[in-house]
Write a structure and sequence with these properties.
The chain is α/β, with parallel strands linked by helices and 462 residues long. The protein is built from 15 helices and 19 strands. α2 crosses α5.
């Protein structure tokens, strides 16, 4: 029977099938951070359960960490408690932990791939919705809740119902100024934020295959924003080249042997998906969001829709009222006071290089606070080695230390009430970047151009 890429990886990890369509699924890699793990550790202690396979777990601190003076004690009490508690729990259970100051510390969905922990054919979970990022390698990766974190800690397995499958194909050549962030924002705005509910998505087509691994991770990262369980892309030579030389990846003859298996992780020609969508890359432009979910997006030179129909009409009006925008408006020329470049969506070295290439020799507008937060210590060091830090400094941008930062404002990096931020993160929910903050999602290129101009401009003309 012909199988999809998802079927091949899923079926290989089913430990037991339970009547009613429920599977016991083995998990290859469990990533943890400070937000969802304390309760899970506490549950295990209450039930007197040991960690089953600690060697399959890796922890880091990312959500609550400050992005300046990381060598000092964390000021905010709850943040400090969560980070310290993670360190204590990892030490107690002898779990690999990359805390503040460690050379491998960073956002959990950034360090997994860059350390060679994320590999094709794996099942990967984390108590974080954007675990779908790792699917860019041909892995089944998805976020889990706190009780499930405890379940994996105790058994290295999860009880799961197998999702339906969807394939989204993007063919053709991308236009000038269009990055992977624009692809996924275009898809979500076209299909809707609930279009992926109940599905695991495979992204395919020549436009997807042309992307770097960083670009593919951006695509898969935001699969969750259309309601999908996760997203994945079949591994190919781009994948294999990225993995080579990574700290914990196979090497030498071991790598050669496993690549032979990885090459089988493609969807069979006659495999059938539960749903398919097709897009032409030529139709995709640089994108912006105007509302309070990632599906409320328009082309950079487009107009905000006048109104939504049916049951969405009320939420559409509510979102525009919150954003202090009107239907029919254009976002071009809108004054912006904050720019955030970072998050598990767009904080990789490729993103920083894109920004540096644009801002080199330019100065940011005086009205703009421009924050660049690398996704890991390794990326921070590469940026400094390549002189990107000097470019950013001369342009007036602030290069910080690694963390989730202003993506979700669980530290000091917040957007003030009522002010706008062009952000490369993944969510533009009400108050996501701070109480009353107004978030406009965009690519790193659009964010950089906004910072320089002090307003939103069409990067294709700059």
């Amino acid at each position: 029977m012909a199988k999809t890429l998802f079927d091949k990886v899923w079926d290989k990890h089913v430990v037991k099938q339970i009547p009613g369509g429920v599977n016991v699924l083995y998990i290859d890699l469990h990533l943890i951070h400070e937000v969802t793990s304390p309760q899970a550790f506490a549950e295990l202690e209450t039930r007197n359960l040991p960690i089953f396979r600690k060697e399959k777990m890796v922890a880091t601190a990312d959500h609550n960490v400050p992005t300046i003076n990381q060598h000092l004690e964390i000021k905010e009490e709850l943040s400090r408690f969560q980070v310290e508690k993670l360190g204590e729990n990892c030490k107690k259970h002898d779990i690999t932990y990359y805390g503040l100051g460690h050379e491998y510390q960073g956002i959990v969905h950034v360090i997994g791939p860059e350390l060679g922990l994320t590999l094709p054919g794996k099942t990967i979970v984390c108590g974080d919705s954007h675990t779908s990022t790792h699917g860019a390698f041909g892995a089944i990766a998805f976020g889990i809740g706190t009780s499930q974190v405890a379940q994996v800690m105790a058994s290295q397995c999860l009880i799961q119902t197998k999702p339906k499958t969807m394939r989204i194909t993007v063919d053709g050549k991308l236009s000038k100024g269009v990055l992977s962030k624009d692809i996924i924002l275009h898809i979500i705005s076209t299909l809707g934020v609930a279009s992926g509910t109940g599905y695991f998505i495979e992204y395919a087509g020549s436009a997807i295959q042309s992307l770097s691994m960083e670009g593919r991770m951006t695509i898969c990262n935001m699969s969750i924003e259309m309601g999908a369980r996760g997203g994945m892309i079949a591994p190919d030579e781009t994948t294999f080249e990225y993995i080579k030389g990574k700290k914990f990846a196979p090497n030498g003859s071991d790598l050669d042997d496993i690549i032979k298996y990885w090459k089988t992780l493609t969807t069979d020609n006659d495999a059938v998906f539960d749903k398919e969508h097709h897009f032409d890359a030529a139709d995709i432009s640089p994108m912006l969001t105007y509302g309070t979910n990632p599906g409320m997006g328009v082309k950079i030179d487009g107009k905000i829709p006048l109104a939504a129909s049916g049951e969405n009409e009320k939420s559409h009006k509510k979102a525009l009222d919150y954003m202090h925008l009107k239907g029919g408006d254009s976002l071009l020329g809108k004054t912006i006071n904050h720019v955030f470049i970072g998050s598990c969506t767009n904080s990789r070295i490729e993103d920083l290089r894109e920004v540096a290439n644009y801002v080199k020799g330019k100065k940011k507008a005086e009205n703009v606070s421009a924050l660049i937060v690398p996704g890991s210590k390794q990326i921070e060091q590469i940026a400094k080695k390549e002189g990107l830090d000097t470019i950013f400094k001369e342009a007036g941008f602030s290069l910080r230390e690694p963390g989730c930062s202003a993506c979700l404002a669980m530290n000091e990096d917040k957007v003030p009430n009522g002010e706008y931020c062009v952000s490369t993160s993944n969510r533009n929910f009400e108050g996501r970047q701070g109480p009353g903050s107004r978030t406009i999602l965009a690519s790193p290129l659009v964010a950089a151009a906004t910072a320089i101009a002090g307003k939103i401009i069409d990067v294709r003309n700059s």
